[in-house]
Amino acid sequence: MAEENDAVMAEVMSLLEAEPASSPSAAPGPDIPTHREQLAILVSTGKCKEAIGVSLTHDQVKRLADKDVIRHYKIYETYVGAKTTETLIDSFLSLSTKALGWVVKIKDVGALQNELKNDYIITKEMSALSGGLALKCGRLLAVANAFLITAKHVDFTAEVHEVTNAEQSSVNGEQLVNNTG
Q1: Tens of pLDDT along 62-111?
Q2: What is the 3-state secondary structure (H, E, C) of the chain?
Q3: Nearest Cα residue to 163 out of 171, 152, 155
Q4: CB atoms within 10 A of CB 85
Q5: C-alpha 122: how far from its chain's center?
Q6: How far apart are CA 147 and CA 141, in angstroms?
Q7: Closest Cα partner for 39 from 18, 8, 64?
Q8: Contact of 85 with 67, CB cutoff 8 Å
Q9: How high does pLDDT run on average in the chain?
Q10: CB neighbours (10 Å) of residue 89?
Q11: Is the separation of the CB atoms in 1 and 83 below 8 Å?
């Protein structure tokens, strides 16, 4: 995965260097203060080197030229998109293989998941799908991913424990004692 990220980062850098300058009549420019603030947050969290490939200090972020802020922020956006895609694919494939395991016997679930995650075609198509979902759903994607992560940790084959009247009375009695104590 690190090799793929390095290749992606190199491609992004070449695209950024080749990107033509915006004309004055173009749409409003990027929000430099907001981008600079996000870069400062990266520095504070210690994720700057991981996210944009460069170690910066708060002072360096403050002194960055606007074009450098834009360049670093675009790299950061690419990093976030890649991490989001990776997480969604992982969660979806884990849940899918778990569901498939109810229907057919899988020899090695972990090996299957790894092979699916490492398959170029599956990763490419799932990346396109998750990117489209991210554009359409935005922050709702976080809720969907939380559901996927939770669902892959649930044992749906476990028997549901029915609460008897005696157990419910015991629980209610404990709550009554706790509330009055």
Answers
A1: 999 999 999 999 999 889 888 888 888 888 888 888 888 888 898 988 89
A2: CHHHHHHHHHHHHHHHHHCCCCCCCCCCCCCHHHHHHHHHHHHHHCCHHHHHCCCCCHHHHHHCCHHHHHHHHHHHHHHHHHHHHHHHHHHHHHHHHHHHHHHCCCCCHHHHHHHHHHCHHHHHHHHHHHHHHHHHHCCHHHHHHHHHHHHHCCCCCCCCCCCCHHHHHHHHHHHHHHHHC
A3: 171
A4: 19
A5: 18
A6: 10
A7: 64
A8: no
A9: 79
A10: 19
A11: no
Pull the structure tokens for residue 180: 């009055």
Q: For residue 16, with 0-12 CB atoms within 10 Å meaning exposed, 13-18 middle and 19 or more buried, which class applies?
A: middle
Nearest to 39 by CA among 16, 7, 63: 63
Q: What's the N-to-C CA distance of the chain in angstroms?
A: 55
